UniProtKB/TrEMBL annotation:
Membrane topology note: Multi-pass membrane protein
Descriptive protein name: Phosphate transporter
UniProt keywords, alphabetically: Membrane, Phosphate transport, Transmembrane, Transmembrane helix, Transport
Taxonomic source organism: Streptomyces roseus
Gene Ontology BP annotations: phosphate ion transmembrane transport
Pfam family, one: PHO4
Superkingdom to which the source organism belongs: Bacteria
GO molecular function: phosphate transmembrane transporter activity
Length: 428
């Protein structure tokens, strides 16, 4: 193993902690729909996802190369910069997990790395072309492509399965969901596990333990794969609830369409070396599948909160990382202060999460109905509410029935015969 200094060791451990949070933060991407439709038990689903994430980590290193060689210039980057980037990414992951929003762990890491690099060496430390073509453009394209593919797949699925019995169809698609969920987990390992491999490799280069341009060593691949697998097994139940039941209501056919579409997009991006957000791809696919069923709806208030979180991910992580980098310029005291801040923040977020526990036992509980949006309110203002119309119709029917009944009774019940006057009593 390469020569590892104390600071470099701290950076590597922090990177693996980020990988761990990435695992439980992104479990929902692979297993939320499978759990919500009942295709797999929650604990079985996360166990299967963990194993396949580990397998996927060994399948490619293209994304790791994008992180370690392409996004920032290796020259002049110090281990402190990598540490600051990880602090920003970890805190964003934990905050969004706490509120149950499926944001991008990948973009949190990218934002942290960019923010720390700029604070350390200026704008020239970031390769703008790589940032735009391999991070920002895929961030916009992934949910659109995956959503369109999932909506089309769901429509085709319902059309082809229209003549099949409901029970037989549901059983078959649940089996398909299990297979497609496994494919998403495998794809997640090929993409997200490599990001931590890339960041550790970059730290090793920055610390002088590896030559510039080196590929991730085997021990880095193994440790990153194990960390994300363990995080996946714990399950990010809060985000699984949001993606599985909070965004739309899915049937097995829709779950199968969503997972298959997302897996295809993720695997294609991994092959091309794009640092794609699996969260964006899977969330877009879920929304597309929700709209692919006749009568299906998307809860747009939840989707809007999710979109806002996506937009804030890169800048928020960048701001925290740049602040951490500035503090660490003071030397060992600054590094210790940032490390203590990270630990204290993680503990505080965990304690807050204990106030309302979400786990495998209640992950599928129905959430409170969302408030009506602007469009719904406007439509309600100009449309006779169904309940009012129904009540009016019922009253009209009741009134007509009452009138008919009265007339019928008058026509069918004979009137009483007139009583004859009594005869006068005979005189005695």
């Amino acid at each position: 193993m390469e020569h590892i200094t104390l600071l470099l060791g701290i950076v590597i451990i922090t990177a693996l902690v980020f990988d761990f949070t990435n695992g439980f933060h992104d479990t929902a991407n692979a297993m939320a729909t499978t759990i919500s439709t009942g295709a797999l038990k929650p604990k079985t689903a996360v166990a299967m996802s963990a194993v396949l994430n580990l397998v996927g980590a060994f399948m490619s290193v293209e994304v790791a190369k994008t992180i370690s060689k392409g996004l920032v210039n290796e020259e002049g980057i110090q281990p402190e910069v990598i540490f600051a980037a990880l602090v920003g990414a970890i805190l964003w992951n934990l905050v969004t997990w706490l509120v149950g929003l499926p944001s991008s762990s990948s973009h949190a890491l990218m934002g942290g790395l960019v923010g720390a690099a700029v604070a350390s060496a200026g704008l020239g430390a970031v390769n703008g072309g790589t940032l735009v073509t391999k991070v920002l453009l895929p961030a916009v394209a992934a949910p659109i492509v995956a959503g369109a593919a999932a909506m089309l797949a769901a429509k085709v699925t319902y059309k082809l399965g229209g003549n099949v019995g409901k029970k037989t169809s549901a059983k078959g698609y649940k089996a398909g969901q299990i297979a497609s969920a496994g494919l998403v987990s495998l794809a997640h390992g090929t993409n997200d596990a490599q990001k931590t491999m890339g960041i550790i490799t970059l730290a090793l280069v920055a610390g002088g333990a590896l030559a510039p341009g080196s590929n991730p060593p085997v021990w880095v691949i193994v440790s990153a794969g194990m960390a994300i697998a363990m995080g996946t097994y714990l399950g990010g139940w809060r985000i699984i609830r949001t993606l599985g039941t909070g965004l739309t209501d899915l049937q097995p056919q829709q779950g199968f369409a969503a997972q298959t579409s997302a897996a295809s997009v993720i695997l294609a991006s991994s092959t091309l070396g794009f640092s794609l957000s699996t969260t964006h791809a899977c969330s877009g696919a879920v929304m597309g599948a929700g709209l692919g069923r006749k009568g299906g709806v998307v809860r747009w208030s939840t989707a809007t909160r999710m979109f806002i979180a996506w937009g804030l991910t890169l800048p928020a992580a960048a701001v925290v990382a740049s602040g951490a980098e500035l503090v660490m310029r003071t030397g060992d005291v600054g590094v210790a202060a940032v490390a203590l801040f990270l630990i204290a923040s993680c503990v505080a977020i965990w304690l807050i999460s204990r106030r309302q526990v979400v786990d495998h036992s209640n992950v599928n509980d129905v959430q409170a109905a969302e408030e009506p949006g602007v469009v719904t309110t406007a439509m309600a203002a100009v449309t006779v509410p169904p309940t009012v119309a129904a009540e009016a119709a019922a009253e009209a029917v009741a009134g007509t029935t009452a009138a008919v009944t009265d007339e019928a009774l008058k026509a069918t019940i004979p009137a009483a015969a007139p009583t004859a006057p009594a005869a006068p009593a005979a005189a005695v």
